[in-house]
Amino acid sequence: MKALISVTDKTGIADFALGLEKFGYEIVSTGGTLKVLLDAGVKAISIDELTGFPEMLDGRVKTLHPKVHGGILHIRANETHVATVKEHGIDPIDMVVVNLYDFEGTLKSGKPHDEIVENIDIGGPSMIRSAAKNYKDVAVVTDPKDYAEILERLSNKTLDEAYKRKLAYKAFSLTGYYDAMIGRYFAGLENETFPERTAIGLLKESSLRYGENPHQNAAVYEDAMTTSLMTGMTQLHGKELSFNNLNDLNTALELASEFEEPAVAVIKHATPCAAAIGSTIYEAFVRAYEADKMSIFGGIVAMNKEMDAETATAMDEIFLEIVAAPSYSEQALEILKKKKNLRILVINFNNKKSALDVKFTSGKVLIQETDNLNYEKLETVTTTAPTKAQLDDMKFAMIVCKHVKSNAIVMAKDGATVAISGGQTSRIWALQNAIRNNPDKDFTGCSLASDAFFPFDDCVTLSAEHGIAAIMQPGGAGRDQDSIDACNKSGIAMVFTGTRHFKH
């Protein structure tokens, strides 16, 4: 029996090869792997001894040879196959142990293009695919974590077809992921956001306790080709993150990262329930808390500046699922860690949010660019122009509105939300809910943002009844003039953005 071993990740490979030798395997190896094996006392032979052909082109060609692929691919139960390989002096290869050049690591390290290209493995994927295709006769081993089980199965004679099929599945998953990374890299070089064919390539980070509900299994995967707000996230304290935690956290981070000044976003059920900016992170938190003292219970708080002791103390009596910040003072951590289950996360806000928004539906995948604001098209359409403070509040409200499920309405004043309502099938219902759910709020002088146009003047009429001073909306409705006229009648400033912000 022969085992061909050629690995980039050499973790445990020497012990594994020595174990294979005990079960009668002759070891064939290449380059640096061969040296490691020989140094460990493995009686390995070089690939050129097997092929009768030297490694060449700086290692680009070494295993791309009929004596390798013929030895792997021939079907042992096929008499013609057996006769053919015998005629050409090709020995069977019964196990292929291969992992690939570190393309991912080379890419992340910022190496130049030519070096990245040299780390595209050719021979490795070819051998893996050959062995996986012929899994009934060949064991393909691509994961060092499988070495111990394989040796155990050799010992108890359970390295059977079913297990080799499982190894084949892992092998094809690896090559698919590897090729996906390479394809996306080259697509990026050509500025192809939406290529005709694409593969995303996701790396499993961990299994989750469950999904949105306890009866749903779930896992979290990492997109290795994207550096985003959750990349490099560190958990300092608390229970493991759940499916819902991660989903909510994404919204919290995306919203908090929209601001340069100290900002706090409070998220519940994947939608903002409060947000505020301030001169300090403490001020921002207090103002966000004051905006909705009820919904914050059991929510997620993300802030874009360091958590200090004052802020930690302010949230000490509030039940929260997660706090996320770029850093924490020692005193803040001491205060927060008194809560056993509170998840404390460190986030790198220098990372940008993902460039693409991907949604999986039943049988289809929807991919779009992420939603970004464009203030260059702002147009005051009413007789009354907004003050600078009102314009700032409208911009702030629209940023928050962008992260609220449509139809969405956000009211704000002095850089803090006053009321938020989303997920309604009617825009007037969204506004009515915002008012109804905040009976103790005084909306006088507030600025309002709507994620889409007003189809009628009813939202303006209701806004005027409650003292709203300024409204920002995309415009573009057939009856825009009705809303403009209603604003002029009530002395409300209205600004058109020309940009809709639906979020589904």
Kindly describe this structure.
With 504 residues, the chain is of the alpha/beta class. The protein folds into three domains: 2-189, 3-Layer(aba) Sandwich (Rossmann fold); 233-346, Cytidine Deaminase, domain 2 (3-Layer(aba) Sandwich), CATH 3.40.140; 377-496, Cytidine Deaminase, domain 2 (3-Layer(aba) Sandwich). It has 18 helices and 21 strands. The strands form five sheets. Strands 8-13-12-11-9-10 form a six-stranded mixed beta sheet. Helix 4 runs parallel beside helix 8, helix 8 packs antiparallel against helix 10 and helix 16 (427-436) runs parallel beside helix 17 (458-465). The mean pLDDT is 91.
Overview in brief:
Helix content is 36%, strand content 19%. It contains 18 helices and 21 strands.
Determine Rg (CA atoms, Å).
Answer: 30 Å
* Number of DSSP helical runs: 18
Structural class: alpha/beta
Head-to-tail CA distance between termini: 57 Å
Shape category: elongated
* CATH class call of the largest domain: Alpha Beta
Residues in helix, %: 25-40%
Q: What quaternary form is this?
A: single chain
Supply the CATH superfamily name of the largest domain: Methylglyoxal synthase-like domain
The overall average pLDDT, rounded, is 91
Low-confidence stretches: none
- Spatial strand sequence of the major β-sheet: 8-13-12-11-9-10
- What is the fold-level CATH name, i.e. the topology of the largest domain? Rossmann fold
